[in-house]
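During the second year of the project, the team shifted from modelling isolated chains to modelling whole assemblies. The rationale, set out in the original proposal, was that interfaces cannot be judged from single-chain predictions alone. As a representative example for this report, we include one of the complexes processed in the last quarter. Its constituent sequences, exactly as entered into the pipeline, are reproduced here:
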Amino acid sequence: MLEKYTPNRLCRDYAEPNFPDLLSFIAVVKGVKPVMSNFIRYNRYRELEKMCNKYGVFVTHNNYFLEVPTRSYLKEAGKDSKQKIVNYITEHSTTKWIAFPNDDPRKNRFVQVFISKSKNLANDALKFGWTTTVVGNHFVQFDLIDMLNFGKLLGYPDCCVEFFCNRLMDVEIGARKPYIIYRNTVGEPSFYCNNILAYFSNYSLISHFPCSFNCKNTIKKSKELLDIIKEEEPEYAKKIEHHLKLPLLVFRDKRAIVFDGVIKNGEIIYSDCIFLGLKHALDESEIYKFETFKEGDSLKVVKDEILIFKNDELLHSIKREDESFGFPLKFH
Ligand SMILES: [Zn+2]
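Output from the structure prediction step:
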């Protein structure tokens, strides 16, 4: 489950050395996505640039390095003036970076890259594409207008970009984004709109937050990409569809569990599971909590709890913080 997939031919040279978000790269190379953006370690930038030349696409990067704040950074910030900033990003933003000038000697940091067939579009994306960042003692909140322009440059559907800016950026929502999208979904969630596996595998057809899990415009764009893959790498297409239809238990943005199993009478019955999460953002007790799912073979979500069973015997119960924490999600 979620094993790395290397296509036989299609953008194989991009996939093999593990550059991020293979499907977006394929979409850019095939002309179904205008621009993609992601983060890589700066020491891999030249390698990426060579690769892009080979596929006839242009790449550029922003002029500062980024680093994900670690738990130790958060602790270090302690009671000084950073505390307010740190509290803010911890509670309200799911994407947290610290920015450093690019003459900083420690160059093994991340840069945000922008890749497109069009040099102009990549440069436009560079102007608008930045995220909420801590610079020294300052917290720089990105601008919604920039975000709107950036989303559109990346080829995300207008309905989804507007939903993201109008609804999902609300500070009250914070990391509950998947649940808000779920609540905005009428009818069955479509696997074409499954963004839960993005960041954690090469099986996600989208890299944006859809306005609903059956957004028509997202389905149209995802289908266009999957059709190309079906044609050129049928085995990969099958694996993508299989993975996107696996049962999920979703906690927060970039915090979910994917199960090798089925949903039956409201229960998830499984033989294996993988926690999808940014481990540096969790503390030990949270990691332990997610690991307990591995011990079970079925689970049930009741009002305030998630009950984990092994051979029909209750093993663990995990408290749900609210109805958005630990909800089952199955795409069709
Ligand atoms: Zn939409």
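The CA atoms of residues 65 and 100 lie 5 Å apart. The first strand starts at residue 35 and ends at 41.
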